[in-house]
């Protein structure tokens, strides 16, 4: 279990800036996100689209903003725990908060910052009974996130889905030439992807490099192995199989890319005052109804709330000032400028300009 002063839940733009503002208050935070990468909606929903309303940045894409925010928090060397969803939050007898994630990790902290946006982005699952048993272990056969093609050498890979992520993964595996075969499995022969991607995928299918199967997996076949059962095939209902029957699709590794859906999930059950699936905060401290728990960004609500990144940046700034009073009660929390404060320069690891 990790003991710390602060945990930020959500590595979207607001969670990242929260870490920065906490750093300026000399509060080191741990950052947790369900996604395998930082950036929240910016990285997941519009990485290549332009944003025009970030103060001082006339235009930048979602991924560029994420990159810049990561650069900004670099001085604080924040431990990031990605690919895990915070599931429980419990008050301890000493007043601290105990957090646990789906990866079985735990943190004991004095303050929690909910920067959870519209919820944890979790992959849409394949509805085949028993398939989740193949997601675990050192060499999982079912992988919902990312993949290093080099680890799939000689394997028969099946990618599921008909959107950008599925087509991109299929083409990436083809290019790497590590797999014994690459199959794209989709419930229909219509894709919902960018034109260039679709064209590349259709060309690969036409050339026979990418195998394309229309079908719906209903069941699986597995065999016992020395390290537990091994997935051998999916049983598919296809347009050609008679009603009530299925045909096998051999698979060594299954990469479902069916999209992500945000789930507020457990946060809604932590007893915080909420209004329409958002957490109620005060606008001076961005404190929730529970002591030591703050909420910022899209997840919070108050009169006049606008779900904009710049609004989240303001919220994170005031929440950090409030947390400083809680975590360092012995210190006077003063407003200092990053331009002129030697203390802030020391925290940021930059040189103070010589006095003239
Ligand atoms: C298409 C589109 C275009 C947009 N364009 C603009 C724009 O031009 N300007 C602008 O200001 N805003 C824009 N927005 C809105 C902006 O993206 C959001 O206001 C912003 O992303 C909110 O940031 P956030 O950090 O609060 O939440 P998010 O970006 O949603 O990040 C929240 C993170 O928390 C994680 N999380 C949630 N719950 C948990 C949990 N229990 N455990 C672990 N992790 C968890 C999620 O996985 C996610 O990564 C746009 C939004 C969309 C969809």
TrEMBL record:
Its cofactor is FAD. It catalyses: 2 reduced [2Fe-2S]-[ferredoxin] + NADP(+) + H(+) = 2 oxidized [2Fe-2S]-[ferredoxin] + NADPH. Keywords: FAD, Flavoprotein, NADP, Oxidoreductase. Its EC number is 1.18.1.2. It comes from the Bacteria. Residues 5-303 form the FAD/NAD(P)-binding domain. FAD binds at residues 33, 41, 46, 86, 121, 298, 339. It holds the Pfam family Pyr_redox_2. Homodimer. This is Ferredoxin--NADP reductase. It comes from Tepidicella xavieri.
């Amino acid at each position: 279990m990790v003991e710390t002063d602060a945990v930020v839940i959500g590595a979207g733009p607001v969670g990242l800036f929260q870490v920065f503002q906490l750093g300026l208050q000399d509060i080191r935070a741990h950052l947790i996100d369900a996604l395998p990468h930082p950036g929240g909606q910016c990285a997941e929903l519009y990485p290549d689209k332009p944003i025009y309303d970030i103060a001082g940045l006339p235009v930048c894409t979602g991924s560029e903003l994420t990159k810049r925010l990561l650069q900004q928090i670099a001085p604080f060397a924040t431990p990031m725990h990605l690919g895990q969803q915070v599931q429980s939050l419990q008050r301890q007898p000493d007043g601290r908060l105990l957090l646990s994630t789906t990866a079985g990790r735990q943190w004991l902290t004095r303050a929690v910052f909910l920067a959870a946006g519209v919820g944890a982005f979790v992959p849409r699952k394949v509805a085949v009974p028993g398939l989740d048993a193949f997601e675990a272990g050192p060499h999982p056969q079912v992988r919902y996130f990312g993949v290093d093609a080099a680890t799939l050498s000689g394997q028969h890979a099946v990618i599921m889905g008909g959107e950008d992520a599925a087509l991109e993964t299929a083409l990436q595996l083809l290019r790497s030439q590590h797999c014994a075969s690459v199959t794209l499995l989709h419930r229909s022969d219509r894709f919902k992807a960018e034109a260039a991607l679709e064209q590349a995928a259709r060309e690969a299918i036409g050339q026979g490099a990418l195998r394309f199967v229309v079908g719906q997996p209903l069941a699986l076949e597995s065999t016992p192995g020395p390290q537990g059962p091994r997935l051998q095939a999916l049983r598919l209902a296809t347009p050609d199989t008679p009603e009530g029957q299925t045909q096998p699709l051999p698979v060594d590794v299954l990469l479902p890319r069916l999209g992500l859906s945000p789930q507020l999930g457990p946060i809604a059950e932590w007893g915080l005052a909420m209004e329409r699936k958002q957490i109620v905060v005060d606008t001076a401290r961005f404190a929730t109804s529970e002591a030591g728990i703050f909420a910022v960004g899209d997840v919070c609500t108050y009169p006049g709330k606008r779900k904009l990144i710049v609004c989240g940046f303001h919220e994170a700034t005031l929440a950090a000032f409030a947390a400083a009073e809680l975590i360092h009660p012995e210190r006077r929390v003063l407003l200092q400028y990053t331009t002129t404060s030697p203390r802030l320069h020391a925290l940021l690891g930059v040189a103070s300009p010589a006095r003239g």
